[in-house]
Design goal:
Elements: H1 29-49, H2 56-67, H3 69-79, H4 85-96, H5 108-126, H6 130-140, H7 143-155, E1 172-174, E2 183-186
Antiparallel strand pairs: 1-2
């Protein structure tokens, strides 16, 4: 009889306990994309199964809206202003990686951005930054909301991580006093988790 599984964390971290042979920072971005693809696919499958319609054909079509190169590229473009410097570096490495394969239903740029997105997912997974990983994946479900938020900040003359702008680590609007990081209000849909600072 198999032992009962104890999953103390609501995100059930690291279901498979084989760590990479190197630190995540040293892994080839295509290796990160390889595992990131699987992690994101599992996230999306769980997401569509949480919806009322359980018909397999419907599940597949709905999932495809999120896991396609075009959708992942769009999500990454919206997420870029919210990424830390470390995350942005992983994205850049993933985008510039030479895979040797070509996209079937996407142009070259979309394919590279999709690979960059998957590299970021794989990196966060192997860094065990589960709350930040969950935040990025949840945000990718509605990239238009992220874009609207960052556009409104630009129009207001504020920038992320600046007084009056949205702190990309906490997801909170900064107070207008220069040099003061006091929080004045929270952006409801894009609250970043507490362990984002670990990155």
């Amino acid at each position: 009889m198999a032992p009962e599984m104890n999953l103390p964390d609501k995100l059930a971290p690291q279901l498979f306990r084989y760590p990479p042979s190197q630190k995540p920072e040293l892994l080839n971005p295509l290796v990160l994309a390889y595992v990131g693809d699987a992690v994101y696919e599992m996230f999306i499958r769980q997401y569509v199964i949480s919806m009322p319609s359980q018909r397999p054909n419907h599940l597949h079509r709905t999932a495809t809206r999120y896991v396609s190169a075009k959708a992942q590229s769009k999500a990454l473009q919206a997420l870029l202003p919210l990424l830390t410097e470390e995350e942005a570096n992983i994205v850049k490495r993933g985008r510039n990686a030479k895979s040797g394969s070509t996209a079937k239903n996407a142009d070259v740029l979309e394919y590279r951005h999709s690979t960059a997105f998957e590299s970021l997912i794989g990196y966060l997974y192997y860094k065990q930054a589960y709350e930040r990983l969950n935040y990025i994946m949840e945000a990718s479900l509605a990239p238009e909301e992220i874009t609207a938020l960052t556009v409104s900040e630009s129009e207001a003359g504020t920038a992320p991580n600046q007084p009056g702008g949205t702190d990309t680590v906490t997801g909170k609007v900064q107070a207008g006093v220069s040099g003061d990081t006091e929080t004045s209000e929270t952006v409801p849909d894009l609250q970043a988790p507490s362990d984002a600072n670990k990155l």
